[in-house]
Design brief:
The chain is built from 15 helices and ten strands. By secondary structure, it is α/β, with parallel strands linked by helices.
Length: 374
């Protein structure tokens, strides 16, 4: 009798486990409603991660174009293959505005069928977006089908993911300027004692553009004009400027890539280079990726986009880029650094305005503008 009862209990537990398992995988009413809405608008929307995985196994291949450094995507590739060994994965790189333009021409000529996931250049964002498959990545992430933080996804186009970020920081050489004299706010660069070739400004104002969403066009335009009146030292390129600071030629840089600064600071023999975060922190969304409209392996591509957004993917980007993870990435270094700070992010809906913001700031700087050829 006791043995029979034991068998009944075990059977009941097995049945209960199956029911719980089925319930966990069952689509909720809200998810089904989201799927219906997405499909009504022409988007692909998978109801579960298992569906994506099963379809990816049938596809068995993945062809990707990325703008990450070679060492970074080498490490990402190895980790991705360990997680999904059934996918024949190949990755190529593209970088720079000219390369992006050439690739855009190839897409327009119909060669997109050779790639499943591609990098979208910020300079030609809307043009590249025309060649991205309408997959509701935003909706699937919102309902837990894909493990991608919502902040990484374009909420308007819903099918493009920013796998990384770049933040700007003030840089100084503490042997040339005392820490207490270093600006604590962006307005501090307008102090009288900093007038007359006392600090560097890059003529390609990435961070200044990123301040527009947080501070407004009028503020940034006015601030840029006042920076010009401070008679700064105009430079181009963070690597050269930071190298000059490293050997003691200059003491202060108004804005440089935080990632570049940290790399120089860590290598400096006297540890004299300091990277200072000022609020609002200028943030650029970078490494924009999506699934091509002609992708032969769209589900494998979704797994790739998801993988880069996971803690594992973000750690690899942090280590080999370095510090180029997403401010929205769970546990990423940039998320830790910016936690609790006010951010100014050049958000998705402002991408079309970014070229105009560059021109506005460069004009306020007094830099010569290219003329249209008649």
């Amino acid at each position: 009798m006791k043995e029979a009862r034991t068998k009944i209990v075990i059977l009941a537990l097995v049945v209960l486990g199956l029911l719980v398992s089925r319930g966990a995988n069952a689509a909720t009413p809200s998810l089904l409603k989201a799927r219906q809405a997405a499909q009504a608008n022409g988007f692909v929307f998978e109801a579960s991660h298992d569906e994506i995985l099963a379809k990816a196994k049938k596809e068995g291949k993945l062809r990707v174009i990325s703008s990450l450094d070679k060492e970074t995507y080498k490490q990402l590739t190895e980790a991705f293959k360990q997680k999904y060994p059934f996918i024949d994965f190949a990755l190529a790189s593209v970088d720079g505005s000219e390369a992006a333009q050439r690739f855009l021409m190839e897409l327009r000529a119909g060669s997109g069928k050779n790639w499943d996931s591609i990098h979208l250049s910020r300079d030609f964002y809307n043009e590249f977006a025309e060649h991205i498959k309408k997959i509701d990545i935003y909706g699937m992430a919102e309902h837990g089908v894909l493990a991608i933080p919502i902040g990484m996804i374009d909420p308007n186009k819903r099918s493009i993911v920013a796998e990384a970020s770049a933040i700007q920081a003030v840089v100084y050489n503490k042997e040339l300027i005392a820490p207490e004299k270093v600006p604590n706010t962006w307005e501090d660069f307008l102090r009288p004692e900093l007038k007359g070739r006392k600090f560097l400004i890059d003529i390609r104002p990435h961070g200044m553009v990123s301040l527009v969403p947080g501070m407004g066009e009028a503020w940034v335009k006015n601030y840029s004009a006042k920076l010009k009146e401070q008679e700064p030292i105009w430079v181009r390129g963070y690597a050269r400027a930071l190298a000059s600071m490293s050997v003691g030629e200059y003491g202060l840089h108004q804005q440089a890539n935080y990632q570049s600064c940290v790399e120089v600071a860590e290598k400096h023999p006297k540890k004299s280079i300091v990277c200072k975060i000022i609020e609002p922190v200028p943030v650029r969304l970078i490494e924009l990726q999506g699934v091509t409209s002609l992708a032969a392996n769209p589900n494998a591509a979704l797994l790739w986009l998801e993988f880069q957004a996971t803690p594992t993917g973000q750690r690899i980007i942090d280590k080999y880029e370095p510090l180029k993870s997403s401010v929205f990435g769970p546990g990423s270094e940039l998320a830790k650094i910016t936690q609790g700070k006010k951010l100014s992010i050049d958000k998705w809906d402002s991408f079309a305005q970014i070229p105009g913001w560059y021109q506005m700031i460069e004009k306020a700087f007094g830099l010569p503008q290219a003329e249209k050829i008649k």
